[in-house]
Structure formats: C-alpha cells, structure tokens
Amino acid sequence: MGNNVLSRVREYEEEHHLSRSVSTRYINQVIRQPYGYPRQVGSLVYVNRRLLNYAHEFSAASQLYFAGLGFGRTQSLPALNRCVSPLRSMSFECLLHALRDERDAIQKKTFTKWVNKHLKKAGRNVRDLFEDLRDGHNLLSLLEVLSGEILPRERGRMRFHAIQNVETALRFLRYKEIKLVNIRGEDIVDGNPKLTLGLIWTIILHFQISDIVVGQEDVSAKDALLRWAQKTTHRYPNVRVQDFTQSWRDGLAFNAIIHRNRPDLLDWKQVERMRVRERIEMAFHVMEREYGVTRLLDPEDVDTPEPDEKSIITYVSQLYDVFPEPPHGHPLFDVEGQKKVQQFRELATSLHQWIREQTTIMQDRNFPNTLIEMKRLAETSQRFRVEDVPPRLHEKERITHIFRDVERYLRDSGETMDRDLYPDNLDRNWNQLMMLHQERDQMIRDEIARLEKLQRLAEKVHQEAKTTDSKLDDIEAWIEDEAKRVDHLHPRDAKNNCDKIEKELQRTEEVIKTMFNDVQVLRDNR
User: Fold this and answer.
1) Is residue 400 a contact partner of residue 423, using CB atoms and an 8 Å limit?
2) How far is residue 412's CA from residue 336's CA, in Å, rounded to a whole number?
3) 165, 191 Cβ separation under 8 angstroms
C-alpha cells in the first residue's frame, strides 16, 4: 500500500515539476543502518522536508501518502513527528550533505564539459574531472589552449612527474597574477574533489569571465555579467534576474536573452506556455544549434531547489560571448515605435558621425605652404559652406521633428539611447562645428593674403635680380673699357671716371642689400 502511494506521490511531483533535492533512497539507507527503521520512515522524513519547502504544492500528495500509511488527515503531522522526532537532527544533516553532493555533482559535470570544450582544440578529452587532471597533462593542455602559450611538461608517469606538471600549471597561473587559495600540486594529483573544482573555477573566472564589462563602472566580472543579464532581459514578463541561482530556475531568463537578440528563433508566447524543463531544453538546444554554445547544463541541473551558482555563471558567460550588447528596441513592444526609434537612431548617428569628422577637419590648422594648394583649400571650404551644410541642416531639423515621437516612446518603454544623439547635443555640436568652420575659413583667407604678398615680393626680388645682374654686366664692361684707355687719359679724367664707376657700384650694392632683406623675409615666412 505504502509503495503504491509513494508512486502516486512521485507522479504528482512530476506533474507539478517538483524537483527532489534529496533522494528517498539515500535517506532510507542512512536511517536504516544505525536505527533499523523501516523504509517508510525514510519516506516520511522526505515528506516532512518537502512539506517545509512546498507546503502549498504538496498538500494533496502528502494527504495521499499519509492516507496510505494509515494516518488520518488530522493525525498526519503529529504522527509524523512521533515517528521521526529521534531522527530530526540526523536527517537535517543528511539533507545538507545531500544538497552539497548534488551541487558538487552538477558543478563537476558543468566544469567537465567546459574543460572538454577547450581541450578538444588540443585533441584531448576528460571523462572524470577528478581523475583525468591528476597527471597534469590535461591541465597544462587546457592552459595552453586558453593562453596560446606553450608550457613545459614532464613525460614520466611517476607521482613526482605528475606533481611537477601540476606545479608548472599553478606557477603559470600565479605568473598571470591569478590568486590561488590553498591549492597545492599534491591536492590535484590526489584527486581532491573540492580543490579540483576550486582550481577549475579559478581558471574559468580568469579566462572566461574576467573580461566582461558593462558600462564604465568599476564592478566585478560577476556583477557586470549580472547587469548585462538584467539589461538584456529588461521588461520581459515574469523575468527578474537578481542572482545566478533562483532567477534562472524556470528557464525564462535563458529564453529572454535569446528572444531579445534573435526574436526570429523563438515564439515568446509559446515559451511561456511550455513546462519548465521544456523551455530550458529549448534555450539550450537553440543556442547549441545556432551558435555552437556548449550545453554545459541539463534542464534538471537548473530546475532544482538550489541551482549551482558557478555552473549558471559559466553557462551565462557563454551567452554573453555571443550577445555582448542587446540590440536597441524591444521585440515585445510597439513595433511602429521601434521603427521610428531605429529611423531616428540611423539619422542621428549619421549626422553625429559627420559632425565629428568635420569637426576634426575644422580643428586642423596645419595648412599647406603653397598658394595653389591654399586656394584649393579655400574652394573646399566654400564648397562645404554652400553644398554640404544646407542638406545636413535640413537633416538636423528632420531629426528634431522625429525625436518628438521617439521621446515619448523612450519614456514609456524605458529604453535608453546614447545622449550624444539627442537633438540638444546635436545642436551644441553643430554650433561648435559652424564656429570652427568660420574661424578656419577666415584663417584660410588670411593665409592666402599672406602667401599672395610673399609671392609679389618674390616676383619683385626676381625682377630686381635680373635687372641688377644686367647692371653688373654693364659696369664690368665699363671697367674693362676704362682700363684700356686709362694710359691715354689725363689723371684728373681717369679719377672722374673711377668715381662714376664707384657711385654706380654703390647704387647697385644698395639694391642687392634690399634684395637680401626681401629674400630673408621670404625665408622666414615660408
């Protein structure tokens, strides 16, 4: 009779998705050894714990079970207490141990899959995480794949070879400034479950999770991942991501992340109607099929009274790698509003980028040093003012008009947008650009005037140089003529001629000095 009712209780559990944190068999074995109580007493302890956790869900099942044991409705709890009161302290301790064992088993399975995901690149595989890391070879290969570095290793099979390999891995992690707490090579070689799991979790934290950043705030990688999940699942009904345990148990958060980024892959209404484990399976299957995300967990690992935090974090971090930034707009709300937001974002982004690019150009004061190039630059400045600015001004006015509708949608939906795209910021940046353009345009005109003045000076020097060169030729010929007939001239006439030549040379020298000054001006203003 009792076994019959127990099967009915289990059917009720399965129908209502009640996961057992402790198996009845385990408690029965523990209880029967020291006390010799019948198997039904262990089942009663189980029912007692379930009543504490799921009183509102389990009342019908517990009544069925008590009826099967011969207890009346009003006698159930007192009778139960009399049966199991000697065992309360021991059963509670067993429950704690069982919960811890279940969590460690889930963690071991998750970490094993994560390790194999990376070891596959090195042609290796682990079946038992605690056994297959003992010789250090798989551990070194894992670190080589994750870091891209080659690590030395011992090829022998003796215990000291294994310890040396594990110590090499630990030294490498310390070199990477990864904090290791009370983990020695001997612990891993001896297959210590707790420390092996701790070591793998440390590696996951550094190589999988530590680079996660959301916004500019200085928070831990775990908090950053949590904020990313909250941001991605924002406004999804019945989804409240507050931790990495209970918030994921019903599977909605996993599906919300997928739907937010790829609404074509899921029908959200259908997801809401699914059973818990069906929707968890759906999320894992879709991510594995579409993006090759390793299925680190099974639905029963998540749909449990105490989901393992580290396992959930490890899997969710894989989703972050695929969808690091949720798209603008929410697939569950106002399609027309989203279209307007998208239209506004595209227009405002285009104008914002154009303003930034042109601002960079207008801030450039390194002008070319030739008049021809400066005149081309003046033409470009004129073309910017006449051809580029008017259509962009019209675009800015259109953006301001569209924003009136977009602003209401943003306020109602809670969606955020880059403040640089807001019309007031665009106006401020626009005005700055126009001011920079006016300053630069004036500087271009001033530079052209300066270069034209220098060009006129250069032409003057060139002309004077030609004239002076010709004048010096004439003086030279004059001197040669006077030298030929100096013997036939009266000394007074010869002196007069020499004075005339000297005066002419002095005038030419003054011209040459002026030219030297002009050339220096040209050199200084090049």
Assistant:
1) yes
2) 14
3) no
Here the tokens at position 44 are: 């009663």
Amino acid at 513: K
Query: What are the structure tokens assigned to 499, written together?
Result: 């004075």
**Beta-strand (E) ranges in 458-524?**
none
**Residue 117 to residue 125: CA distance in whole angstroms:** 9
Token output for 347: 């227009």
3-state helix vs strand vs coil in the chain, percent to 5: 75, 0, 25
Nearest to 314, CA basis, from 198, 411, 440, 225: 225
Distance CA 263, CA 256 (A): 9
Phi–psi pair at 137, nearest 5 degrees: -70, -50
How high is the pLDDT of residue 101?
74
Cα dist. 134→74, 184, 199, 260 in Å?
57, 12, 12, 42
Confidence at residue 494, expressed as pLDDT on a 0 to 100 scale: 82
Output the pLDDT for position 36. 37
| pLDDT score for 133 | 95
Element (H, E) at 272: helix 268-273
- φ, ψ (nearest 5 deg) of residue 241: -85, 105
Q: What is the pLDDT of residue 277?
A: 96
Rounded to the nearest 5°, which phi and psi values hold at 414?
A: 80, 5
Which residues fall within 8 angstroms of residue 303, CB to CB, at 6 or more apart? 17, 19, 249, 250, 251, 276, 277, 280
Distance CA 373, CA 282 (A): 65
- For the entire predicted model, the pTM comes to 0.52
Structure tokens of 86? 């000697």
Mean pLDDT in order along the chain per 10 residues (526 residues): 45 45 38 36 38 38 39 41 46 59 88 96 94 95 95 92 96 92 93 95 92 71 93 92 96 96 92 96 96 95 93 96 86 77 92 95 90 92 94 94 84 77 94 95 92 86 87 87 80 85 87 86 76
